[in-house]
Amino acid sequence: MRNALFSLALTILAFAAQAAAGFEVEEQHWIGPQDGTPLRVISTTDTDILAPLIAGFLLKHPGIAVDYTVANSTEVMKAVLEGGGKFDIALSSAMDLQTKLANDGYTLPHKSPATALIPEWGEWRGHVFAISLEPASIVLSAAAFSGISLPQTRQDLIELLRAQPERFHGKVGTYDVSLSGLGYLFATQDARTAETYWRLMEVLGSLEPQLLCCSASMIERVASGEMLVAYNVLGSYARARQDLAGKIIVVDPEDYTHLMMRSAVLLKGGGQPDLAKTFADHLITAAWSQPPAADYPFSKPPVAFADTASPKRPIQLGPGLLVYQDAEKRKRFMAEWFSAVRQQ
To answer: What is the pTM of this model?
Structure first.
């Protein structure tokens, strides 16, 4: 029923209007009745991943439609800052940018029985609400790594790449941090965590890495053999690609694995603030109910992290995420990063 609703209601809109608005769109869909009251969502999450949750929301709320726009996290930020109240809610994997929107006064507070389900570390000041917990993983070509030991840590990967530079030259990749807000978040968190990260970036840089905007692109290239190793890919996206299960291997590094919280913020100036709160509650309830809703598309988020020795490390929401959003710090970090990975 839900898939039928989604398929029947889906209409792909032209990108030209959004391009004129000053930000780049990856997808745009109208989901629901054509004459429905629109909830305008800007998101980094691919439409097909969130489609079951959206369909479930629309079944509960007849007469509502979701105007769903997908862009990368940097463009989502731009759309909110320059959009003049076009959107009601923003969903993003870039925790630092969501926190900055809240800190700078672009978001609305929200409190409800649904938000009470979120652990203390999964929300910030009643403005930023986690709806998932997803690992920054290493994705490997199954064919290339058949019969050999898999790198389980960053040091393992460094030693492997150094030992076989000819094999991996031009066949490694990661996010382009100038294009991807999530890539920038992962990179800055890595840099704060261990010096091993900079050694890895220098090794990748010596191999002429492919720098891409999105996890989906990296996963596809590893599956096709165009890349053999992709670093800091969203493990949730990779594991969701059951069609590629025989072509890729997903590794969560044992030295440490950062866990990103995909989050929702309610935007000031949107035309449907109450509807945005209702939709946020729908997503939050799906994620944090025990067990999560059947149509929840991500791995079940744990309620607590009691084992501090665990290599799984949630990136903490809060003002600490704003450090690398300072213009000068960002400029210096970018210069150092590109010096390591471009080596020109």
So the answer is: 0.85
